[in-house]
């Protein structure tokens, strides 16, 4: 049974294309003037927020001093290059990766409430990391030392991939339906969440506390070893996802349309889901589960760009801005006490989720 064409709930009206076509071999893209303008503004905002964030610390700096330190001048070169810049870059790269994964997931599921969370990535990573911290305990250094530098990121990546694989296999029924994928993902994520809290309950208080710090989503202490994996993932997967934009755009109109356009439906879905899973898993392994960025950023980008589905590049930049802004708030709101960035995104994202639920319900009634 094929699914009928479904419009994303409360998507903005699609305006006539106003741009120019870019072609690279057999692939082509339509560069819209509005989308390009929004992307440039978001890029500038992300850079500005990074600079403002790097001013904050035990050694206060002005924005000019930050830029001087980056180019090698001044006495604060080490502080900026080894402590503050890696943290800022980790934030924007993780936000971009989560938002891009969210845009892909929402386009495939044809549902604005879909995110990598429903694919089992975030909860899979969380339960795996909690398990290794609680099981290893102080004998492996808890959540510090070699375990933090190698074990936790690797286990987070493995857990995210394993969680997504479980969801994918359970959702497969002679093909992959977007809504079935969401429902199965919600169920699997609920199981993972309960297992995670059970582990926190039975574990040592100190180890459970360390695990709670990680699963709250934090950029504190992030270094170049966290920047590099996310940067590589984005450098590899952004071009691949852009190459699959045609297939992604066709998926939102239903299986009949996809087949009529000559797209291999199951292969296209599988490859794009794999890209989303890898992006979300790498991002989670670097900074822990940062809530609501993958959910909110694509919908914000969709409205800013005025297109029919979440635009990939604009979504990534919107995610970078959201994470950088949340980190700035987390560091300044109760200074000198620093909040985990995941707490800030959760507080800001909860009202947005309620708003989305209300809009989706109204759309369904109409």
Automatic annotation (TrEMBL):
The keyword Chaperone does not apply. One of its GO terms (biological process) is siderophore-iron import into cell. The chain crosses the membrane at residues 29-52, 88-109, 118-138, 150-171, 178-199, 226-243, 271-297, 339-358. SUPFAM superfamilies: ABC transporter involved in vitamin B12 uptake, BtuC. It is found in: Cell membrane. GO terms for cellular component: plasma membrane. Pfam families: FecCD. This is Ferric enterobactin transport protein FepG. It comes from Streptosporangium roseum (strain ATCC 12428 / DSM 43021 / JCM 3005 / KCTC 9067 / NCIMB 10171 / NRRL 2505 / NI 9100).
């Amino acid at each position: 049974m094929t699914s009928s064409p479904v419009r994303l709930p409360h998507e903005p009206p699609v305006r006539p294309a106003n741009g120019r076509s870019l072609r690279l071999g057999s692939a082509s893209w339509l560069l819209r003037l509005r989308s390009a303008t929004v992307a440039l503004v978001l890029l500038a905002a992300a850079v500005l927020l990074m600079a403002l964030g790097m001013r904050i610390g035990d050694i206060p700096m002005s924005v000019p001093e930050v830029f001087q330190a980056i180019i090698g001048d001044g006495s604060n070169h080490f502080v900026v290059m080894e402590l503050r810049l890696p943290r800022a870059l980790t934030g924007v790269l993780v936000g971009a990766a989560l938002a891009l994964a969210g845009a892909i997931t929402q386009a495939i599921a044809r549902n604005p409430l879909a995110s990598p969370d429903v694919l089992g990535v975030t909860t899979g990573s969380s339960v795996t990391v909690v398990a290794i911290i609680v099981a290893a305990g102080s004998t492996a250094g808890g959540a510090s030392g070699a375990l933090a530098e190698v074990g936790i990121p690797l286990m987070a990546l493995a857990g995210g991939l394993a969680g997504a694989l479980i969801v994918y296999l359970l959702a497969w029924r002679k093909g992959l339906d977007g809504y079935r994928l969401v429902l199965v993902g919600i169920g699997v994520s609920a199981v993972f969440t309960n297992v995670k809290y059970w582990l926190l309950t039975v574990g040592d208080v100190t180890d459970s506390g360390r695990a709670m710090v990680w699963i709250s989503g934090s950029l504190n202490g992030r270094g170049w070893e966290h920047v590099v994996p996310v940067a590589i993932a984005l450098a590899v997967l952004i071009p691949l996802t852009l190459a699959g934009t045609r297939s992604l755009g066709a998926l939102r109109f239903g299986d009949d349309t996809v087949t009529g356009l000559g797209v291999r439906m199951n292969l296209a879905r599988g490859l794009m889901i794999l890209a989303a899973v890898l992006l979300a898993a790498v991002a989670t392994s670097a900074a822990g589960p940062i809530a609501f960025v993958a959910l909110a950023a694509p919908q914000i980008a969709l409205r800013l760009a005025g297109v029919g589905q979440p635009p990939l590049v604009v979504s990534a930049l919107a995610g970078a801005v959201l994470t950088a802004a949340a980190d700035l708030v987390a560091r300044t709101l109760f200074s000198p006490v620093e909040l985990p960035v995941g707490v800030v995104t959760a507080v800001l994202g909860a009202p947005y989720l309620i708003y989305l639920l209300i809009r989706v319900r109204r759309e369904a009634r109409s």
